[in-house]
Amino acid sequence: MTHWIIAPVILPALLAPIIGYVMRYDILIARIASIVGTIGLVAIAAGLFASAAPGETFVYRLGNWPAPFGIVLVLDRLSALMVLLTSVLALIVLVHAVATNWDQKGLHFHALFQFQLMGISGAFLTGDVFNLFVFFEVLLIASYGLMIHSGGRERMRAGLQYVIMNLAGSTLFLFALGTLYASTGTLNIADLAVRLREIPVEDAAIVRVAAMLLMIVFAVKAALFPVQFWLPGTYANAPAPVAALFAIMTKVGAYAIIRVHTIVFGPDIPATGDMAGLWLFAAAIVTVGIGAFGVLGARRLMPLIAFSVLGSMGTLMLAISAFTPGATTAALYYLVHSTFAAAALFLIADLVVTRRPGDTLTTLPATVQNGLFAALFFGAAIGMAGMPPLSGFLGKLFVLDNLRDPAEIGWAWTAILVGSLFTIVGFARAGSALFWKSTAFVLPENVISDDEEKEEVPITRDPAKAWEVAPTMAAIGMLAALSIFAGPAARYFELTADQLFDRNAYVSAVLENPDGLKPYPDDHHGEEDAAYDEDAAEHDDDGSAKDGGH
């Protein structure tokens, strides 16, 4: 079973160049290969999820090099959950892109899509922070191409801002890795968990610098204040299916904070203490406010959805900032919910905008299937805003219930409740303008948009086919399922949080050390060098490959 851990990385990595070089001139074959490959990824992810569910931590050692000397992939409940979430979302988005012909509006859509899945899956499975950086770069490079898919001046401008911001984050990531390696001599997550417990508080200044640099890098990926300004423009101008896939992109940053700042820089670590949690809590409060005011003030549909995603990330980060098993359980529930809620909104927005002259929230002629689109928008909107009966309501209640610390409850509850109210009002205003106030006559076949570019926008009067609507319904169905099966889901998330906070079990599995977090003896450096030399000699004798070292 262990060899299947690398399959979510290998499958899209092999499929992407085949599609890009062999199938790029035959869209039908490319579509078939991409969809079949993504279905295969869902099947593999489901198998890994079932294997990890009992609670065992599986480790895949590339080149059979033991950690911390080699590259390792680690499968536990959390990584299995994130890979499954990614694959299911990818299949929903891919079907929508094919059904609406978005994949034909530029070259290499399917190849870039598969490379994106490779990077995201690798980021969730890697067992060291250096390879987290590597997979970040893979998914970011693919996202650059997807962001500007089909072209356009505004899209290129937003894409340039996205590239510059993430390049700056990547540079900072390298500085953080160098600082961390200089102070600990390792970048393996499990080994870092051991080493940091050996560092006295008075000698940990450089470790605290590295911890905060990593927090800033992950905050960039998660669009957290004060480095959140790239998200509204990027998501609002990206092709709608790409924006829907990007719903998981910010969750990569959230996952990195959960994984690294729980296992390595947890609040109980003397070297770092609660430094990360305090900063994260304050930034999350401001992020919720920016998202809520953005939704309330938006005059276009796509920016409105983008700001709602920003607000949901603030709510998610409030739960994460507590760094307790209960709050992490709530965060995981809300993470899954917010991913599908954002995807559903972007997909329904695509169906609506392609039947209107632009996405301005003004009274315009009614679209075909106005009632159907209104119902889908209403379902996705109440999910994102946190209204019953969908999972957003339960998710926010879950988060509020776990933020009862006297120093936090006032700020956290006010931010979430007031932010939810603003989000409800913003979506109600948008839905009213888009559907309820629409006039009765229909649009001509093509009209000229009223944006600054004055580009001709094709407007279709054709009703959406079943498989164009099906992905949006599937995403909303996930919200309903998460609400109906809230009990079993919450129980799984609770077990996941418990496993995450059991650092001893994680370290024991990765380092093959039965004593887990027991500190190394004083002369551990000499023992490590001897172990390394012995293992290297064995590899020289049997001719095994030496890949996996940093």
Structure explained in plain terms:
Helix content is 69%, strand content 3%. The protein has 550 residues and is mainly alpha-helical. It has a two-stranded antiparallel ribbon with strand order 1-2. It has a two-stranded antiparallel sheet with strand order 3-4.
Q: What is the strand content? A: under 5%
Instruction: Give the mean pLDDT.
Output: 84
- Rg, rounded, reads 23 Å
Order of helices and strands: HHEEHHHHHHHHHHHHHHHEEHHHH
Largest sheet: 2 strands, antiparallel
Low-confidence stretches: 440-457, 519-550
What is the overall shape? globular
Please tally the β strands and state the result: 4
Strand order of the largest sheet: 1-2
- How many alpha or pi helices? 21
Helix content: 55-70%
What is the SS-derived class? mainly alpha
Distance between the termini: 26 Å
Short description:
69% of the residues lie in helices and 3% in strands. It has helices at 7-22, 27-52, 77-99, 109-125, 129-147, 153-184, 189-195, 205-222, 230-237, 240-245, 249-263, 275-297, 301-321, 325-353, 370-385, 391-401, 409-436, 466-484, 486-501, 503-511, 524-542; strands at 58-61, 72-75, 446-448, 456-458. It is globular and about 70 Å long.
